[in-house]
Amino acid sequence: MTSIEALLTLQHIPNLGDSSIKKLIQVVGSAEEVLQEKKANLLKIDGIGKVKLSAIHDTLHRKAALSEIDFMQKNRINYISYTDKAYPFYLKQCVDSPVVLFNTGNLNLPKKRIVSIVGTRKVTTYGKQFCEQLIEDLVPFDPVIVSGFAYGVDITAHKAAIKNKLQTVACLGHGLNQIYPKSHKQYMASMEENGGFMTDFWSDASFVPQNFLRRNRIIAGMSQATIVIESADKGGSLVTAQIANSYNRDVFALPGRTTDAMSKGCNMLIKTQQAHVITSVADLVYLLNWETPNTPKKVIQPQLFQNLTAEEQKVVDFLKDNNKQDLDSIALHCKIPTYKLASLLLQMELKGITQPLPGKLFSLI
Hints:
Layout: H1 3-12, H2 18-28, H3 31-36, H4 39-42, H5 50-53, H6 59-74, E1 78-81, H7 89-92, E2 100-105, E3 114-119, H8 125-137, E4 144-147, H9 153-163, E5 168-171, H10 188-193, E6 195-199, H11 210-221, E7 225-229, H12 236-246, E8 250-253, H13 264-271, E9 276-277, H14 281-288, H15 310-322, E10 325-326, H16 327-334, H17 338-350, E11 354-357, E12 361-364
Parallel strand pairs: 3-4, 3-7, 4-5, 5-6, 7-8, 8-9
Antiparallel strand pairs: 1-2, 2-6, 10-12, 11-12
C-alpha cells in the first residue's frame, strides 16, 4: 500500500477528520502503519475513541481510495500530503489543515510570500480598481495571489495576477472533476499556466454551499495575510477574515464610505479591530515587514543621493544622524503623516535609499 493510498483510506473513514488522522500518524509513525495497527492499540491514543475507529478496517474505504487515485491518474491531478516539503508552510501550522491537497497546474509555493485576496461577488468599480492597482504594485515582491475563483473580487484578483505574471492559486469548494462557476472555464488554461487550482475535496464530493466555508480555511491558512476588498455586512469573506484571525494571521480591509453597502463589512472589521486598514501596498509591506527581493542593494553614501524631494531629504537627514528608527519616530521628527510616510519609505526603498529592518525599523542603505 502506497502512502497516498493509505492517507486517502483514512480520509474516507467517517468521523475520522484531518486532525485525528495527523494525531494517529504522529503516534504510530505513518498512515500505512496506522491501518496495520490493532484497533485496541489505537484506542489507547488520547482523543481517539471507538466512534472514530469503528470502520477503520472496512475494505470499503480502501476501494474508495483506489477509485480516487484512478481518477487522479486519468485526469493528471497531483497531490501534496501534509508531510511534503511542497505543502504550504503556513497551512501546515494549522491544526485543522488537510492531510492531502489535490491540485492541477504549475504550483511553486515553497519559500514564496503568499497573500489571499477575498471579497464580495458584487464588486464595485472602486473595489475592482483598488484590487488591480494593489496587485500591480505587489509585483516587486513576487507574491502568490490566492483567492476562491468566484465572481467579483476573486476573479478580479486572479486575472490581475495573471496580467502581472504573478503566480495565482484558486482554492475550490468542490472536487477537480468540475469547475464553478462554469462561466470561468475560459480562465482555466491561463490559471494553470500561472499557478493552478487546489482543493481538499474528493471528486465525488457533493456540491453544497457549506463546502465553501470549509474551503475558506485553506484560503486563510495558507497565506501570511488575508486582504478583504469590499464586503456586505454578511458574507463568506468575513468568515475567511475570522478564520485568518483565529490562525493569528494579519487581516487587512479596504475602508469605504459608510453609505456604501459593499463597504459595510470592511468598515466593521476595521472598527472592531479585526483588520488593519489598507489603502495602498505600503500598508501591507510595512506591517508584514517585507523586504524587496527584486531590488538590488546599492551601496551609496547618503550625501551622494541626487534629486531627492523635500520630504525624502528630511528622512535621509534624520536617518543619517539617528541610524535605525521606527516609523512613528521618523514621522514625528520629519513632520510627515504616518500614512504618507509608509508610502514614501516604500518608494525610497525601491530607489535604493532606505531599507526595512526586523522590528519594523528603517535605515539608510
